[in-house]
Amino acid sequence: MPFHLRTSERASCRLEIRLTNAEREQLKEMAEAAGLSVSELLRLRALGRAVQASSDMTTIRELRRLGGLQKHTINKLLNETGVTAECIDTIKALREAIERLAR
């Protein structure tokens, strides 16, 4: 979500909260995984908006790429039913993994 504009209005108010050191570290790790600042992560979460980890998006892209390669393999090996069935099973597994990550 880099370069995502929240609104045309620039944030100008501060909100102070108390956290334990463990909570602060956990928030920093979550923000880093999502590719956001801690402030942006808290804003999104507090306002009920979805936060998608950037690593999840990278994984989803890779799984989609692998699915495309499997599809290409199926097209090349249409006459060999055992290999084709295995490729179809692999594509189904990739699709399930993408759906789990997307949730």
Furnish the topology, listing elements before pairings.
Blueprint: H1 21-34, H2 38-46, H3 54-76, H4 81-102
Helix pairs in contact: 1-2, 3-4
Please sum up the structure shown.
Helix 1 crosses helix 2 and helix 3 packs antiparallel against helix 4.
Mean pLDDT: 80
Q: What are the secondary-structure elements, in order, as H or E?
A: HHHH
Q: Biggest β-sheet, characterized?
A: none
Q: How many angstroms does the end-to-end distance come to?
A: 16 Å
Helix count from the secondary structure assignment: 4
Enumerate the spans where pLDDT stays under 50 for 5 or more consecutive residues.
none
Number of domains as seen in the coordinates = 2
Helix content: 55-70%
What structural category arises from helix and sheet content? Answer: mainly alpha
- Rg, Cα atoms, Å: 20 Å
Strand content: under 5%
User: Globular, elongated, flat, extended or rod-shaped: what is the shape?
Assistant: elongated
Features:
103 residues; mainly alpha; 4 helices
Give your account of this protein's structure:
This protein is mainly alpha-helical and 103 residues long. 66% of the residues lie in helices and 0% in strands.
